[in-house]
Specification:
The complex is a heterodimer of chains A (about 350) and B (about 240). By secondary structure, chain A is α+β, with helices and mostly antiparallel strands. Chain A is about 35% helix and about 30% strand. Chain A has 2 domains: about 240 residues, Rossmann fold (3-Layer(aba) Sandwich), CATH 3.40.50; about 90 residues, ACT domain (Alpha-Beta Plaits, 2-Layer Sandwich). In chain A, strands 2-1-4-5-6-7 form a 6-stranded antiparallel β-sheet. Chain A has a 6-stranded mixed β-sheet with strand order 8-9-10-3-11-12. Chain A has a 4-stranded antiparallel β-sheet with strand order 14-15-13-16, with helices on both faces. Classes of the chains: A alpha+beta (about 350), B mainly alpha (about 240). The complex binds adenosine-5'-diphosphate and magnesium ion. The site of adenosine-5'-diphosphate has 12 residues of chain A, from strand 1, strand 2 and helix 1.
Amino acid sequence: MIRIENYNKTFHLKSGDVVALDDVSLTIKDGEKYGVIGYSGAGKSTLVRCINFLETPDSGSLTMDGFGTITANDGKLYKDGRLLSEKSLNQMRRSVGMIFQHFNLFDRSTVFDNVAYTLKYNGKSKEEIYRRVFELLDLVGLADKADVFPSQLSGGQKQRVAIARALANNPKLLLSDEATSALDPDATESILRLLNDLNRKLGLTIVIITHEMSVIKTVCDRVAVMEKGKVVEEGTVYDVFSLPIMPITEKFVNSTSSLAKVDELVRSSQEAGEHLYKLVFDKNVDKPLISYMSRNFFIDFNIMLANLETIGGNGLGAMVVRIDGDQDNIDKAMDYLKENNVRVEVLA
Amino acid sequence: MNSFFKAVAPNLYAYRERFFMSCGQTAMLFLIPGVISFVLGMIFGIILTVTREGGIKQNRILFNIVNVVINVFRSIPFVILLIFLIPFTRFLVGTSIGVRGAVVPLVFGCVPFFTRQVETVLVNVDPGKIEAARSMGSSVMGIIFRVYLHEAVPELIRVTTITAISLIGLTTMAGAVGAGGIGSFAINYGQGQHHQDIVNVCVIVLLVVVCLIQALGNFLARKTTNRTIILRTHSR
Ligand SMILES: Nc1ncnc2c1ncn2[C@@H]1O[C@H](COP(=O)(O)OP(=O)(O)O)[C@@H](O)[C@H]1O
Ligand SMILES: [Mg+2]
């Protein structure tokens, strides 16, 4: 388990202070795929960089299984009341892997040497290193590229090498900072699938930073939404998707949903005096409600927009409907829907 | 061969022993300060890179000291430096003349130039690579040798080549403190005695040496670059 408590970080620039982290607290469970989403500048990178202390928080603490609690105070790190030595910090970093948007491979080293980076000069024999590197390359499906230089690889392959390199020391935790943001959709999908596999096979805990909701939706179990250095919303991906609370979360949710065009629809319906409703069917809804209502309340449904998806194996549907009929009947129908766990929102 | 030499450059032939001695002196004036400057320039360049703000071992005091010293010596013209350093040279190596006396000012003339070039090269190593190494728990020394220096090898070869060539230029001025070398040979025996053939041959020798250094540098830089440079015609 990783527990972040009350992280604060302010950058003092000539142009003024930038609050990158504002009292952030999070708990990430073992074996979890934890997403952090937010727009550019929200503080996501600063947050992950404060997990392996590439950046030192101004204050706050981090507790990690097998390593204890590290406390930041006044830009310095302490452990057990004493200043954290560079040596033990480096040791801690070796048990946390990290991958980056631009891969950050060593261009003058072969794929083999990139992956072997942390294994070398570590008292390991040549055979041991050789065995481990190929084990890792097999894991990411690139064993045939061992002698190739990074410049000869595609973006997706480079990220695979970076993943192999990050996992060389058998870390329990992998930090991924926009690891798919520079990749095309195919490569993105294959990298996300790989992360999923690694999570399953190795029990790897993964923290995924992204600005794309689709990434969160495909891999993450839980998600934190960041805005201006704060975590404004947090929960399981399913809950956040089915019932976003903050406007920014709703924006992210809509970004992967065909309901995004709803605003336009609302405006035109308001002008026309039509009844427009948004209905959300989550995993608790299992009846054919629409046809039932149509029959029993003498109203007509016109589905304007609809979005159906599966998140973590659970279905989630939402639709925007125009309802024609007597207001009394419409109200009765809406009450009926609510009784059956459908969330109803009056749009116009 | 000898008769050919005699025919094209009769004066040079007459002074051939002096000429070969001068070539030897230039070689010494190049190699000894060159090796020392290479080591010192690397060390100072690394110090400037890692101790600067945002560096992997930030140290404002050390950075400022090295930075100021380098700037001061860089802005003194070499001929002035030669004279200025005479007492210091005498203190350090016991004499201020001859090849021995010229080594010190040549090092002082070369190191600041090379340091700046090394610094520029190292600072331009992709910070992402440094970050990756830090995230893997690499020590400061590990990052210096395995990332900064290793990734920058072709660029370091390039700036070493440039510095070597400019050091050849400096050696020709070392004649001013009686260190000899091709430069002073050309002035004393060529220009001084109106033997144009001597001057011409000296120019050719220097030209060939410079070209050889440049060619060697280019070759090694190319050989150590593992990045296939693809000229992209399409925008990305
Ligand atoms: N090293 C730094 N120096 C100064 N400002 C920084 C630094 N790193 C991040 N910031 C600032 O902190 C804020 C959060 O940045 P970041 O964590 O990179 O956001 P994100 O990853 O969500 O895009 C931004 O305003 C950014 O400009
Ligand atoms: Mg970022």
